[in-house]
Fold:
Amino acid sequence: MAIGSIDKLHNMPGVLGGYFAKVQLSSWVPDDLTSQLSRDHRHTWVSKKTAEASTIGGSSQPANPEDIGGSRLWRAHCRDCLCRLELVVSADGCTAQNECVDKEGHHIHAHLAKESETSSDQTLGPEAACPGRARCCKCGFAVDIKLQPPIIEPSMFRALENARMTAHQHHPTQGVRDYVATTKSLCALSRNAANGERRPTKTTNEKARGLLRFDAPCNHILEILGFELVGDEFRPPVTGDPQRPTLVLRRLRRASEELSIMTGRAQRRLPEKERMASHAVVPATDGLVAMLGSSSYARRPGALALSLAFTGSGGGGGDVELESAYRVLGAPEDAADSLISWAYTRLADEDSSDEPLTGPWAQKRFDAVSAVSAARGSDELQKLVEAEQMRGMVTTENARLACRAVFGDSVGLDDVDTSVIREVFVARLAEVSSQKTKLELANHLSVLACAKRDQSLCEYAADVKATVESTPEALAAPKIDTWLQLPVGLNNIGNTCYLNCMLQCLFSIAPVRHAVMRYGDGATWNESLVLGRRDSGRRLTELEIKQALRFVQLLKQLFESLVSR
Structure:
């Protein structure tokens, strides 16, 4: 089956267009590069700065995508790993801005290969690339995608930079100058070779030696470019007809782009007067989002484009990290609550599994939306979570806690069936005399019954709970004092008792607790990073503002963990 077939794309989970452009494509890393990159590598797309780009609205945004043969082409490189991403959008059936007919925007189903495939083009020659295909399930908008590993691997640039910096350990700026001189010279050599230059580069030439050094890292890159060392000179490769680009010519052109990007990246460490405009690069993600017609989705009021790093497990959200939760829902972090709710419902409608409402995928979606709801303190998302709970959904974390309360730490929910749950519950209920403990056990049984999707156990749990609540002791008992509902406290991690006391005092003040828990709704707190704020007449620095926002965010995370106890 072809990678771009409609049937195969239909079976892929859909994501919002903004998430596809900003996150999914940025997380697409070929398997042959994973060993060289960090585990959490994300592509940052950049393109060469052009005269047109520098004059558009006075900004540094890249020029518009190219129009080629009735289609639109967009390409850019990752500034860190140098992968090249190329997208081709057919103009058939699309508006000028490629926008979706639905007001909520595109819902993209994409298949992105992780292993490179080699083309079988007999004219242009074989070339490795990871193919991809994406299509909107609502309007039919489709795009062909290609991710190509770099010609020059990042490790080779690191080796070259280390060699130059080692030679100037006490003068790091000079080391950067030498590194820039080498990458710029290699870029010129590859570009000249692509233009048909046949003159060799002599290793004995004083000027060439001053720029290239001809050490092992430099010679290795020259060999990758196709230069052949014969005697004391490097001879450029034969490229053929520029009008019919061969594989050698295409590799030289791509390598020159990679060398130019690395030159532009390194020269940012030099004084401004030493930087070359010919190697400057600009961010390209906004151009990608615009070409995919995904720049107009509904955003949270006052939300930052990229929120501060945060993982949440409060509010029953389970162990789902917040970033993973957004990934499951296929929504960008700055999407409005209404769009998150819509994405959740859309994924449920598109679930083609045997159990679309209660199966494994439904459980993942519910864990994710619960985590996002808890992190945002959103009333709209909380109503969605409560509606799902009414039909029997419970988070994985709540089910795990209930299982631990009934069986202990050594037993997992998958290890027991419903008959065992009932037997153990009856035994545990007979062991306790406190009305409060019995009610807690009954609540745990209700959670386990929902997690097991067993209707008879759910009915039994409801009967037990009603019986416990209707006993004379329960009816005569006064309402539990608010202070008794608060968690016991925080663990002392080394002379932190006074700090713990202060944090618990803040938590016990209902208005403070509620305000902190609503951080992230875009209305309660001023979450925008706006410079110029003052504290008693003193202007706050950008770092102080970031630290203040981060403090409230961490305080919310702590409060959520206390609530979930």
In short: Confidence is low (pLDDT under 50) at residues 1-8, 51-63, 304-320, 474-484. The longest helix spans residues 172-194. Residues 164 and 175 are 5 Å apart (CA to CA). DSSP finds 21 helices and 15 strands in the chain.
